[in-house]
Design a protein that fits this description.
Serine Threonine Protein Phosphatase 5, Tetratricopeptide repeat, 111 residues, 82% helix, mainly alpha, globular
């Protein structure tokens, strides 16, 4: 086992331990999903991002990462829908930075 895997596994274990007492914590779930992406477990990352966004549609940061994951796995139409939903939520929240990032990624994919 290389150091990166050990470190990634260790972080995953720590985040999972925190989720035991806070199972619906969006920040912890988002962090865990990002760790899964680093390890190549995109299926589990997707499940976590979707769980976050179904429960908390205003958790804007997860839209970008979920859409990028969908892009990487060849699910372009689904990625476009996620970017569009993220842009809609960013507008509602008045988060211009997130809106700009989502729009830029959406434009790269659609033009």
């Amino acid at each position: 086992m290389n150091n990166q895997s050990e470190t990634g596994g260790s972080r995953i274990d720590k985040i999972r331990a925190m989720l035991v007492s806070q199972p619906a914590d969006c920040f912890l779930q988002h962090a865990l999903a990002l760790e899964y992406i680093k390890l190549g477990n995109e299926e589990e990352a997707r499940r976590l991002f979707e769980e976050i966004l179904n429960r908390e549609p205003g958790y804007i940061g997860s839209y970008y990462h979920l859409a990028k994951l969908l892009e990487r796995t060849g699910q372009t139409d689904a990625a476009i829908q996620v970017y569009e939903k993220g842009m809609e939520e960013s507008k509602k929240a008045g988060d211009q930075h997130a809106l700009s990032e989502l729009r830029s990624a959406w434009e790269e994919l659609t033009f």
